[in-house]
Amino acid sequence: MWMLRRRLRSGALDDFDVLDFHRVEPIGLFLRDTRPKNVVIHQDMADLRNAKSDIRWRYAPGLYDAVERSLLRRVDRVFCVRQSAVHRYVTRDPSLTGRACFIPTWVDTTVFAPAQASGESPRQIRRDVFGKLGIARTARLLISVGRLDHQKAPLLLLEAFRAVLRTRGDVHLAIVGDGILRRKVENACAANDLKGRVTTLGARPASEIVRLLRASDLFVLASAYEGMPIAMLEALATGVPVVGTDVGEVRLILREGVNGRIAARRTPEALAGAIHQALAQLPQLPPFSAVTAGRRAEATASVQSGAAYAERAEERPRVPALGETRCSGDQVGCRISGAC
Predict the structure, then answer these.
(1) What angle do CA 305, 308, 313 make, to 5 degrees?
(2) For FRET with 109, which of 28, 207, 271, 289 sits at 20 to 30 Å CA-CA?
(3) pLDDT at position 157, please?
(4) Whole-structure pTM value
C-alpha cells in the first residue's frame, strides 16, 4: 500500500483512464478520484470464516466486512468469480444491484493448449518429462499446480495419494508450487511410503507448467475453498482430465465422467476414490479428448470474456439506476453464464 500511495502522489498513475483493482483495500487511496473504478473479487470473502483460510483478515472478519461494504459502494463495477459472492453482496447491500456481476475466470489458450498446438509429438513430450522426473514410461502421472498453503491443501492431497498407492503401484505425483507449507510437504514426501513416488518441483514458469501438463494423465485439486480455479481451467485447456474437491465454481467447470471427477467429500478416502475412478476411465478417452467440444468452447469463451473485459476497461462503465434488478445484459460474465 505504501508503494502504491507513493506512486499515486508522484503522478505516475495520472495517465490511466480506468482504475482496476483486484482487492478492495487500495480503493481507499482513490476515494476522491473521479475516474471509473472496477474491482475483481477472486473469492467469496465469506471464506474468511473458513477454518482453513490463509487470508490475514480471518482474524477480524467483521472489520473486513465493514471495510469492504464501504469501499464497494465507491466503485462502478464489482466483478466476482463466484456466483455466491454476487448473491451475498446484493443481499447485504441492495445498492450493488446491477453493479455486482459474475464473470468467469479466463485462461490463455494460446499458452495452455494440447500438445498438438505446439507442433511437438505428445509421446516425445511425455518421454522428455518422464525422463527428467526419473519415472517409468508406463507410469500414470498425476500433477497438482498451486500454492502450498492451507487453501490448496497439499497435505490432504498427499494423504489421498498415499491411499491410491495402496492399490496402484503405477502412479507418480508431481507437485508444482511454493508456499508456507513447502517444508511440511517435503517432509511428508520423504516418508517411506511416499519416497520416490512424489516429486516436488517448486514454482515454475508457465512454459514449463504447460509442458508438465501435456505429459500428465490427471490433474488433482484438493482445495479447501476456491473461486473459479485457474489452474484447473489451464489443465482442462491443455487436455488433461481433472479430479477436484467440491468447492467454489468447480461444478461449473467439471462434468462428471466427461472431463473429470468431483470428490464426494473433502477427505483423503473420497479424493482417492475420485482419483481411482478417473484413472480407470482414462483408457476410454481418446487422446486429449478430456476437454469435450462444449467445455473447450467454454474455455475459449472464458478467454474471450477476458478480452472483452479488457476492452470495456477503455470505456467508462454505465452505473445502473438504483433499483435495477440485474446487470445491464452487456456484462461479459453475465452473457456467458446467465448467472445474474
Answers:
(1) 125
(2) 271
(3) 97
(4) 0.81
CA-to-CA distance for 59 and 107, rounded, in angstroms? 32
Closest alpha carbon to 81 in 54, 60, 63, 100: 100
Please report how many Cα atoms fall inside a 13 Å half-sphere around the Cα of residue 172, on the Cβ side: 21
Helix axes 268-281, 154-165, angle to 10 degrees: 60
Rounded CA separation 203/104 (Å): 25
Tell me the mean pLDDT in the region 57-62: 94
CA distances from 168 to 79, 177, 265, 323 (A): 43, 25, 21, 58
User: Given this model, what pLDDT does residue 212 score?
Assistant: 97
Distance CA 163, CA 184 (A): 19
For the segment 115-149, what is each residue's pLDDT rounded down to a tens digit?
Answer: 888 888 999 999 999 999 999 999 999 999 999 99
What pLDDT score does 106 carry? Answer: 86
Q: What pLDDT, on a 0 to 100 scale, did the predictor assign at position 54?
A: 87
Which residues are paired to 218 by β-bridges? 142
> What gap in Å lies between CA 154 and CA 145, rounded to an integer?
10
Half-sphere exposure of 118 (CA within 13 A, CB side): 20
Task: Give CA–CA dist 42/103, Å, rounded.
Answer: 10
| Cell matching residue 254 | 467439471
CA distances from 175 to 46, 171, 244, 245, 269 (A): 28, 13, 15, 17, 19
* Domains of the chain (ranges, CATH numbers): 2-106+302-337 (no CATH), 115-296 (3.40.50.2000)
Look-up of cell digits 476414490 = 273
Alpha-carbon span 304 to 204, nearest angstrom: 26
Measured at the CA of 239, the angle between CA 278 and CA 268, to 5 degrees, comes to 30
Under the banding of pLDDT at 50, 70 and 90, the label for residue 151 is: very high
The H or E element spanning position 165 is: helix 154-165
